[in-house]
Amino acid sequence: MVWGFIGLRYSLDRKADHLLAFLSRLSTAGLVLGVALLVVVLSVMNGFDREMRERILSLVPHVTVKPWSAEENWDAMAQTARQQPGVAAVAPFIEFPAMLSRGRSMEPALVYGVDAAVEDRVSGLGRFVDLPRLSQTSEQVAPVIIGAGLAKLLGVAVGDSLNLVTPASAQQSSNVSFNRLEVVDVLDSGTEIDQRLVLMDLYAARATGVDPVIGLRVSVEDVFSARTIAWELRNQLGFHYQYSDWTSQLGNLYHAIQMSRNLVVVMLLAVVAVAVFNIVSTLVMVVHEKESDIAILRSQGATPGQIIKTFLLYGAVIGLIGVLAGGVLGALGAWAITDIVAWIERAAGIQFLQGDVYPITYLPSDLRMEDWLMVCGVSYLICLLATLYPAWRAASVQPAAVLSYR
């Protein structure tokens, strides 16, 4: 296959015109950069999606059911909820806002009372802290687990004491109630809940004077069916309960991640298209430079189809080199981006993702083979389509018109 040999020789020729060689390398470098960026950014967006589903949604309630009155029998509610299709587990909880104070420092917090014996069934908190420590209660002090961000603001560590300040109940004479707490563990999940969460034993939290009602935290098998299951629970339990699901708090964030992912793909494919346009320009200049060679081949019997195949192979080799190099570079970048960003943060003493602004405090990455193949395949297809015009120009060269001026 003579046309294949000629195409490979053109694409790998190191003695070509210096300007053309420079432009060819520049266009190939642009393609490498575009493909690598697309792979890395897609991996980062996939990482956010993974952390959203596997980490954040394992810590926040999928569905909550809270009665309006403290006299409601939460155990009967739990029995009904467990029978609902799609419900994985049920656990009681108490939730109320409060203030934490230590010395002159005072910070707002969200107190979350849990039953340490069953909390692991409905949440992933047990992966980060030792929940059974909450059961070691005493009359003088209540053990608590606080978020890492909150601990940093208050300047406390494991073993330190602080005060829980809550509104007093109607039976108390003062306006606020103070309860002594001891920090037994620090929650460092890398998510925004580290900034305000305080974990207490369920009944210790109920005895703080706020007198909150006990609700149910419901874990579902499919997190995306949480809204449907909440509605079905409403039909089963009645409308005199408060119902909520994770989509009311984090649904917009999840959809924003998905939309941003699609927009980023379109934008970076435009970068790849610009790099491919540079390859087209280079190939057109190559056709112009090689007009005499093309004319000689035509005069010796080469058909227009063979000329087209020659330059298609020329563009295909350039595109293949650029796409594979970009794919490999992007895969390496996606694999190392989390550690690279963490190293930059430590070296510069800054944090790019603040826990009080973003749902997680680090840059995740999740390289997926299907995305890598899609990026490389689409980019290479664009390169092949881009070579059609230069190849057609080469096949349109008239041997008599060219050789008559040589």
UniProtKB/TrEMBL annotation:
Keywords: Cell membrane, Lipoprotein, Membrane, Transmembrane, Transmembrane helix, Transport. It is found in: Cell membrane. The keyword Membrane applies. The keyword Lipoprotein applies. Residues 266-399 form the ABC3 transporter permease C-terminal domain. It is a multi-pass membrane protein. GO terms for cellular component: plasma membrane protein complex. Residues 26-222 form the MacB-like periplasmic core domain. The chain crosses the membrane at residues 20-45, 263-287, 307-337, 372-392. GO terms for biological process: lipoprotein localization to outer membrane; lipoprotein transport. It comes from the Bacteria. PANTHER family: LIPOPROTEIN-RELEASING SYSTEM TRANSMEMBRANE PROTEIN LOLE. Belongs to the ABC-4 integral membrane protein family. LolC/E subfamily. This is Lipoprotein-releasing system permease protein. It comes from Litorivivens lipolytica.
